[in-house]
Amino acid sequence: MLLTADIGNTSITLGLFDNEALIEDFRLASDKDLSLEEYEVLLKSLFKNYDIKGCIISSVVEELNEKFTSAVYNVFKIKPLMLSAKINTGIKINMPNLDEVGADRIANAAGAYVLYNHPVIVIDFGTATTFDIVNKEGEFVGGVIAPGINLQLRTLNAFTSKLPRIEVAESRTAIGNNTVDAILSGVIRGCACMIDGLIEQCETELGTKAVIVATGGYAGFVAPYLKRNFDFINPTLTLEGLRHLYNINQLAAV
């Protein structure tokens, strides 16, 4: 079986594939303070009933790379494949600075490339809200990076003297008649307006309409306030992209 791991700034998402079927997925906190031994215990506990034969990792947290890859090796006796623009991505990355391209964004683009028609815009609602765009020629041409929903809520609390820390929730009205509703309107509905506007501008630059795919935990909070509905919501797109990338790199090595 194949273990896929997407290490983000907030969480680590793990997926277990039996051929093409995702049979388990887990979400852990991206905790830089956990020891190697503690990550080993977590992996042993989660996957004790499975025979892991391969692993691919995408990571945007440099501090966890060595610790997590070592944990995978120590527990399963396999060397993980680390995703970067230097391996076979199965898709042309049409960007000038390949070292700047985040591994998670490559996984999203690769997953979108094989699963959906082109052009396609993947909107990933994580710590950052990102657009990853594959044009009609099937090239990953870049995208957009903006503060994520939870990051906005935390920042409003951290950098003001009176605004409270609140959790992500439904925005009941555009005009908030209390502080919580006003914040939720600004962040949740504001994010929807940003997405609508950026989709329109990106499609203008692409010269055609695109397939719009949402992934990440906050997509459901934003979707009700969009003028342009998502064509697909795929919460496991990044993991599916990782599975595809592992397979094509294994084939290339044969």
Automatic annotation (TrEMBL):
A monovalent cation. Ammonium or potassium. It is an enzyme of class 2 (transferase). It holds the Pfam family Pan_kinase. One of its GO terms (cellular component) is cytoplasm. K(+) binds at residue 124. It is found in: Cytoplasm. Keywords: ATP-binding, Coenzyme A biosynthesis, Cytoplasm, Kinase, Metal-binding, Nucleotide-binding, Potassium, Transferase. Pathway: Cofactor biosynthesis; coenzyme A biosynthesis; CoA from (R)-pantothenate: step 1/5. It catalyses: (R)-pantothenate + ATP = (R)-4'-phosphopantothenate + ADP + H(+). PANTHER family: TYPE III PANTOTHENATE KINASE (PTHR34265:SF1). Homodimer. This is Type III pantothenate kinase. It comes from Candidatus Scatousia excrementipullorum. The gene is coaX.
